[in-house]
Structure to design on (515 residues):
C-alpha cells in the first residue's frame, strides 16, 4: 500500500467507525452470547464424550501404535505421503515450517490494497487450496490406521493374526500390502510361495538377520499359530484390497 | 447510583448553577452516602487513573456492519479462560511423576467429585479452542483484516495459533496412558528429524536423550506455566492493538462513495 492508499483507508475507516455503535454494550452483548454458546458446547461435549483414559503408558512395549490428537492428523499424514527416508525431514519440518512462515509473513508479501474477498482471487484461491489440502490430509489421517497396522483386507478369522503381525514388528522389515519396509522379502503374497509349515519353520529358524520367533511359540503357542495362519493366508487369490504391481517381491 | 463509576455518571453541575442555600442535614447525609459509595471506585480511579482507559476501551465505537463473525476472537479467549480454570482444578489433583501420573489421572476421572466432567471439559475445550482460533483466523483472512494498519496483530495471532497447538502437544502426554505416551514419543521424534536444530530441540523437550521423569516434568511445566503465560501476555498485546487500531469494518462497506454510487445508479 502506498501512502495515498493508506490515508484513503484510514479516512474511510474513521467514517465507518464514527457511524458505528459503542463496543459496550452492543458488541459485548454479542460476545457474551457467543461465550455462553462456547461454554454450552464444551460442557455438552464433556458430558457426551467424557474423558477416556486408555491403558497405562508402558515404555517397554514398542508395539503400541501412536495416534495423535485429531488436529495433528494433517502433520502425521504428511509423513505417510512422503515415502523416501531421505526426504522425511521435508515432510516433518520442511513443509510445515515453510507453511508457517508463509502464514506469519502474510501481511508483508500480500500487499494488495483490496480487502474484499472477491477482489483478491489469488489470495482466496491460495487459502481455499490450503484449507482443502489440510482437510484432505486430516480426513486421510482419521480414516487411515496407525502406522504399525496392516491396512489390507483381512478375513475375520485371520484378524487376530494380523494384529500379532503388526505388533510383532514384522513391518519393520517386511512389506504387507502398502505398509512396511522393503528390507526383507515382500510378504504380500507369501502364501503362494511358502506353505503353512514352511512359514512356521522360517519363523522359528530364520535366516539372519531376522530374529527367531521361537520364544513366542514357547510362551504363547496360540498367538504363534494365529500369526502363522495369517501369513499363510496372504495369497494372491485372497482378496486383499490393494492395487496390482506390489506382489512382485523384492 | 452511587456505585456507578465516575466516568459513567453525568457531569456535575457547574459552580454557577449551584444555589447558595446551605444544604439541610438530610441532604448532607444523602450526599455523604453518595460520596461514600462512590468512594471506593473514586479511590481506585484516583490512584490508578483507570477510567480514561476503561472509557476508551468500553465506549470505543465499533464500525457499522460488524456481525457474528466478529465474536470468534472473544469466544477463543473465553475458551482459553475456561481451559485455565479447569486446568487449575486438574492441577490440584494431578501429579507429574511417571509412576503417579496415570494413577492421579485415573483418580481424577473416577473418584474426585465432578472430576470426569472437569477433565472432559479440559479435553474437549482444547478441541473447541483450536476450532475457534482457526475460524477466527479464517474470518480475519477473508475480511482482509490483516492488512494495513493491523499487520502486527496478524503476526501476534499466528504466534497464538502456534502456541495453542503447542498446548495441545504438551497436554496430550499428561494423562500418561499408552496413546498419549506413544503419540508424544513420535511427536518429539518428528522434531528430532529436523535439520540442524532438530536433535537439540528434541533433547530439550525430552530433558535428555530418553523419555523419563524429566520429560513429564518438562511437559507439565511448559503446559501449565510457560505456554499459558505467553498466551496470556500475547492476548493482552492482541487486545491492546485491537482497541488501539479499532475493529476492522467488513470490506464490502464503503463509506465515502456511498452517496456517489447512489447517484450513479
Amino acid at each position: 500500500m502506498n501512502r495515498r492508499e493508506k490515508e484513503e483507508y484510514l479516512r474511510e475507516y474513521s467514517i465507518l467507525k464514527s457511524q458505528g455503535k459503542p463496543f459496550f454494550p452492543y458488541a459485548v452483548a454479542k460476545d457474551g452470547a457467543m461465550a455462553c454458546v462456547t461454554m454450552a458446547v464444551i460442557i455438552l461435549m464433556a458430558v457426551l464424550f467424557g474423558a477416556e483414559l486408555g491403558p497405562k503408558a508402558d515404555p517397554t512395549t514398542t508395539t503400541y501404535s501412536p495416534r495423535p490428537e485429531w488436529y495433528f492428523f494433517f502433520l502425521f499424514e504428511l509423513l505417510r505421503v512422503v515415502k523416501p527416508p531421505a526426504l522425511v525431514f521435508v515432510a516433518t519440518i520442511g513443509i510445515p515450517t515453510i507453511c508457517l512462515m508463509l502464514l506469519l509473513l502474510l501481511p508483508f508479501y500480500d500487499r494488495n490494497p483490496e480487502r474484499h474477498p472477491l477482489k483478491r482471487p489469488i489470495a482466496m484461491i491460495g487459502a481455499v487450496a490450503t484449507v482443502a489440502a489440510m482437510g484432505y490430509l486430516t480426513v486421510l489421517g482419521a480414516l487411515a490406521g496407525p502406522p504399525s497396522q496392516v491396512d489390507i483386507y483381512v478375513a475375520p478369522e485371520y484378524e487376530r493374526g494380523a494384529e500379532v503381525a503388526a505388533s510383532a514388528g514384522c513391518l519393520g522389515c517386511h512389506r504387507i500390502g502398502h505398509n512396511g519396509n522393503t528390507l526383507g522379502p515382500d510378504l504380500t503374497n507369501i502364501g503362494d510361495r511358502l506353505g503353512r509349515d514352511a512359514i512356521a519353520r522360517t519363523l522359528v529358524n530364520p535366516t539372519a538377520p531376522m530374529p527367531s520367533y521361537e520364544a513366542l511359540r514357547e510362551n504363547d503357542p496360540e498367538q504363534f499359530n494365529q500369526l502363522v495362519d495369517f501369513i499363510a493366508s496372504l495369497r494372491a487369490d485372497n482378496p486383499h484390497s490393494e492395487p496390482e504391481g506390489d506382489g512382485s517381491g523384492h | 447510583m452511587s456505585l456507578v463509576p465516575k466516568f459513567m455518571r453525568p457531569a456535575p453541575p457547574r459552580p454557577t448553577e449551584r444555589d447558595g442555600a446551605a444544604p439541610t442535614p438530610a441532604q448532607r447525609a444523602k450526599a455523604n452516602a453518595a460520596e461514600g459509595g462512590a468512594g471506593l471506585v473514586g479511590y481506585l480511579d484516583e490512584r490508578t487513573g483507570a477510567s480514561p482507559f476503561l472509557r476508551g476501551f468500553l465506549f470505543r465505537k465499533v464500525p457499522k456492519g460488524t456481525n457474528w463473525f466478529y465474536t470468534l476472537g472473544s469466544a477463543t479467549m473465553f475458551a482459553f479462560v475456561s481451559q485455565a480454570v479447569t486446568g487449575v482444578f486438574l492441577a490440584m489433583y494431578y501429579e507429574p511423576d511417571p509412576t503417579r501420573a496415570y494413577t492421579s489421572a485415573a483418580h481424577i476421572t473416577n473418584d474426585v467429585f465432578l472430576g470426569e466432567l472437569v477433565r472432559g471439559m479440559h479435553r474437549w475445550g482444547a478441541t473447541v479452542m483450536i476450532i475457534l482460533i482457526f475460524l477466527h483466523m479464517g474470518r480475519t483472512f477473508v475480511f482482509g483484516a490483516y492488512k494495513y494498519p493491523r499487520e502486527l496483530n496478524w503476526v501476534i495471532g499466528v504466534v497464538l495459533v502456534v502456541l495453542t497447538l503447542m498446548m495441545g502437544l504438551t497436554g496430550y502426554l499428561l494423562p500418561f496412558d499408552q496413546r498419549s505416551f506413544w503419540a508424544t514419543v513420535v511427536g518429539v521424534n518428528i522434531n528430532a528429524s529436523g535439520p540442524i536444530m532438530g536433535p537439540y530441540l528434541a533433547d530439550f523437550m525430552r530433558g535428555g536423550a530418553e523419555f523419563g521423569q524429566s520429560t513429564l516434568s518438562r511437559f507439565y511445566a511448559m503446559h501449565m506455566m510457560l505456554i499459558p503465560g505467553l498466551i496470556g501476555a500475547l492476548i493482552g498485546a492482541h487486545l491492546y492493538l485491537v482497541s488501539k487500531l479499532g475493529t476492522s469494518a467488513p470490506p464490502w462497506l464503503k463509506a465515502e462513495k456511498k452517496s456517489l454510487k447512489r447517484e450513479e445508479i
Notes: Confidence is low (pLDDT under 50) at residues 259-265 of chain B. Chain B is about 65% helix and 0% strand. Chain B touches chain A through 88 residues (CB under 8 Å).
